[in-house]
User: What shape does this take?
Amino acid sequence: MDQTPYKVMRSCGECCTRLVDFGVTLRGSRVLEQIRLHMHCGELTALIGPNGAGKTTLLRAMVGELPHTGSLRFIHHGNIETTKPLRIGYVPQKLELDRTSPTTVMDLFAGALTRWPLWVGTRKAVACEAQAKLELVGAEALLDRRISEISVGQLQRVLLALALTPVPELLLLDEPVAALDQGGMERFYQTVSKMRTEYDLSILLVSHDLTAAAQFSDRMILLNRTVLCEGAPKEVLLNPLIRQTFGFGFTEQEIDGRRPLFKQLEHEQCVLQTGET
Amino acid sequence: MSLWHTLLLNLPFEWAQYDFMHNALLAVLLVSPLLALLGCLVINNQMAFFSEAMGHSALTGLALGALLGIADPTATIVGFAVVLAVAMVLMRRTSAVPPDTSIALVMSFVVALGVVLLSRGGGFARYSRYLIGDILTITPSELGILAVVSGGVAVMWVFLFNALFFVSLNRSLAASRGFPAGVLEAVFSVLVAVVVSVSIPWVGLLVINSMLILPAATARNLARNTRGYVLGAVAVSFLSGVTGLVCSYYWNTATGATIVLWACGFFALSLAVRRR
Assistant: This one.
């Protein structure tokens, strides 16, 4: 049972995740090379790049699903350096589900919190923990629903709550809003933004929605097989490399004009149409 | 064991008066829930076709046993299935051929090889017992082996359940929770290979996969959560196992296939209930 209190502390800014000379080779071809990254806790880093840039591959290597070269280090409080993170939370783009899947939201949490097969007993403590996490993301009514019958947006919030159980030090989000409508996307980003300040965690978010990502992130990384440029979101979006990579660029007004994003939905979609689909 | 016999002898049924039925009932009570438990994970992880191939590989395992002159070919059946399971896991990881195609290829090969080897000199009929199974001939010592295997598999199943549950949802999600998808799938594949091949002499390789898949598929139609799914699968397997065994006694039919027909009936029923 996870005993972590819900609110750990304000971000300390000391702990970080560091990738040095990180690379991934898949079936003999070098997909990612010489990645250098530095993510601090309490920071939301947006990872952008064209299709096939290796964004998802980078995440899959970071969670340990794919082998990698170079090093992935985690520096905890008091400068303790390890190559194993204590906890990674991961929100996938989608789950492999069929319509008859009997899995409920509660099953997901039970599977994450107990060692026994998740269907053995419904422990009160597990239900309480799950309910608390679901409340954080505004999905408290979903505990006993089957994940095959809730909406994409609801499932995305459930998966975020699951990734926060137990509270991770590094949260990886793989295009979590790709399937959401505009309203759902905003709610999701707002929730994630709230998380970084409430918990002591670094967030790495893969996004295709460049301007929305720019609005919510503290730092931005442009990836195409390696890190092309990184820095403050606005800096990155104004970098000529953006035009070279995506075939379109942004003006300062366009980026600033995004704020507040929520009032400018139609304009937003126009910009995106010229971008990736 | 004697307690079991006494218990059944007191039942007012004709079938309950025979020792071979007592042994068979015990075997059914051991094998069918075990297959149902594994079946839940097999369906979750979309391995139904893989387990079918495991069943059919028994033909080659059987032929190897005959070639080596081993009286009880169970060892070669299990051994060959395990080797094949590992080979198929590796093949899936490295080959560019779609998984279902590669399974079909391997299955065709092992069936053809087994049939060719077994039919040399026209002696295939001797082995038809393995096609349809013969649970009524199981001896107490064979029951003992079955019980040990069942116990071992049940323990591993308990440890693997949550991990394979996450692997079935999303491999990266599983990895982020410290569950290595590749290793777990390999272990589970071997587990399926062992259970399927150990059960084949009793259930028959033609219907073994149905015993694995049908109870879980039936429960899946009705379950509102994972607990309902697992317990429902076990219930359906018990029900169709015992009913099938008793019916096969009165109808004088092959037990494995009779059990599967009952399981099919329950599946149809679950579909009808679900539609409403």
About this structure: Chain B has a mean pLDDT of 91. Chain B touches chain A through 32 residues (CB under 8 Å).
